[in-house]
């Protein structure tokens, strides 16, 4: 079973604001949260969830599905789950695993929090932060 699809950061925010049970799951590493910043969902009255897909060494989190189930608890079965990583790559895997575990619909945010590197090897010209969605330093 495949995840529900790839969505822009703006569409992710629309889903989060229009669906009262929708949740955002940031699957970056603890280091990324601390050094780069985190999405701020306080204005919609629901916290984002932070569950590493891989650790700082790139090792996949074997407890991801269990940690996700614990974090999402008793949400309605049809509540959207929006997955975010740095560039929109790791969150594809997270959305796929979540879908297989019964968390549907699960979406991947294109370009993630800060996008992939540009021609100069720098990030930040696309993604959640670049389009002006709420974020803060962790």
Q: What is the SS-derived class?
A: alpha/beta
Distance between the termini: 34 Å
User: What would CATH call the homologous superfamily?
Assistant: Rhodanese-like domain
Into how many domains do the coordinates divide?
A: 1
| Average pLDDT taken over every residue | 95
Strand content: 15-25%
Helix amount: 25-40%
What is the spatial order of strands in the main beta sheet?
Answer: 1-6-5-2-4
Largest sheet: 5 strands, parallel
Uncertain runs:
none
Rounded to the nearest angstrom, the radius of gyration is: 14 Å
Order of helices and strands: EHEHEEHEHEE
CATH level-3 fold name: Oxidized Rhodanese, domain 1
Assigned CATH class: Alpha Beta
Overall geometry: globular
Q: State the total count of DSSP E strands.
A: 7
CATH architecture name: 3-Layer(aba) Sandwich
Counted by DSSP, the helix tally is 4
Q: What would your notes on this structure say?
A:
With 138 residues, the protein is an alpha/beta fold. It has a single domain (7-79, 89-116), classed as Oxidized Rhodanese, domain 1, CATH 3.40.250.10. It has helices at 9-18, 30-36, 64-72, 90-100; strands at residues 5-7, 23-26, 38-39, 49-50, 81-84, 106-109, 135-136. Strand 5, helix 4 and strand 6 (106-109) form a beta-alpha-beta unit. GO terms for molecular function: transferase activity. Keywords: Transferase. This is Rhodanese-related sulfurtransferase. InterPro entries: Rhodanese-like_dom, Rhodanese-like_dom_sf, STR4-like.
């Amino acid at each position: 079973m495949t995840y529900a699809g790839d969505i822009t950061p703006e569409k992710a925010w629309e889903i989060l604001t229009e669906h009262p049970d929708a949740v955002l799951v940031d699957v970056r590493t603890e280091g990324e949260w601390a050094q780069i910043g985190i999405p701020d969902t306080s204005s919609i009255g629901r916290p984002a969830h932070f569950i590493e897909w891989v650790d700082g060494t790139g090792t996949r989190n074997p407890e991801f599905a269990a940690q996700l189930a614990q974090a999402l608890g008793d949400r309605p079965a049809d509540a959207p789950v929006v997955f975010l990583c740095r560039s929109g790559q790791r969150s594809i895997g997270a959305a796929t695993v979540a879908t297989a575990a019964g968390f549907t619909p699960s979406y991947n945010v294109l370009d993630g929090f800060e996008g992939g590197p540009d021609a100069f090897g720098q990030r930040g010209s696309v993604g959640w932060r670049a389009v002006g969605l709420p974020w803060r330093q962790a």
